[in-house]
Structure formats: C-alpha cells, structure tokens
Design brief:
The protein has helices at about 5-25, 65-90. The chain has about 100 residues and is an all-alpha fold. The chain starts with a helix and ends in a 13-residue tail after the last helix.
C-alpha cells in the first residue's frame, strides 16, 4: 500500500515539468533574424521610438540634479585640502574643518 505522499509525487512532478516547459519555451522563441549586423540585435518594442531624445520617453534630466555629485566631490576635495594644509602646518590631524583656524 502506497502512502498519500508517494501518490502525489507523480502528478506534482508532471505539473512541474509542464510549467518548466511552458516557461522555457518562451526564452527560446527569439531566432535573431532582425539583427542589423552581427552582434547588434537590439530593437525597440513596438511603439517605442528609434531615438529617445525629443520623444515622450526622453527623461529631460535637470542639469542641476546631474551636477550635484561633482559639486559635492569638489567640496570634499576642498575640505581635504584644508585638513592637509593644517596637518603640514601643525603636525596634528583635525578631521572637523570647523575647528581649523581660518586663514
């Protein structure tokens, strides 16, 4: 006499194989026939423009937002320069720039 778990193993295995076959078949559907040249097979989805600039998909980034990182890096380098100059002058390293003497 087989237990209930042994009887359920076969249908569950068949179900798992069926799901794997359905999902795996979609990945193999692309045949590469629309390549512009060897290795250049990207194409936009239907309705997506060939060029993004000037279309409704153009993110139109704010230059000030894009510039924030370079501004913060420049400020960091200025603080580090003050710390190094103070260290060379006094021989003691002070991390807090507010505690450094004003030039």
């Amino acid at each position: 006499m087989k237990s209930n778990t042994a009887r359920m193993r076969i249908p569950l295995s068949l179900l798992a194989i069926g799901v794997a076959a359905l999902c795996g078949g979609q990945a193999l559907a692309y045949d590469g026939t629309k390549c512009k040249e060897a290795g250049n097979c990207w194409e936009p989805k239907p309705g997506y423009p060939e060029k993004v600039a000037g279309s409704k998909y153009d993110p139109k980034h704010n230059p000030n937002e894009l510039n924030k990182q370079s501004v913060s890096l420049a400020a960091m380098e200025a603080r580090n320069a003050q710390r190094v100059a103070n260290f060379k002058k006094t021989g003691k390293f002070e991390y807090d720039v507010a505690k450094l003497p004003k030039p």
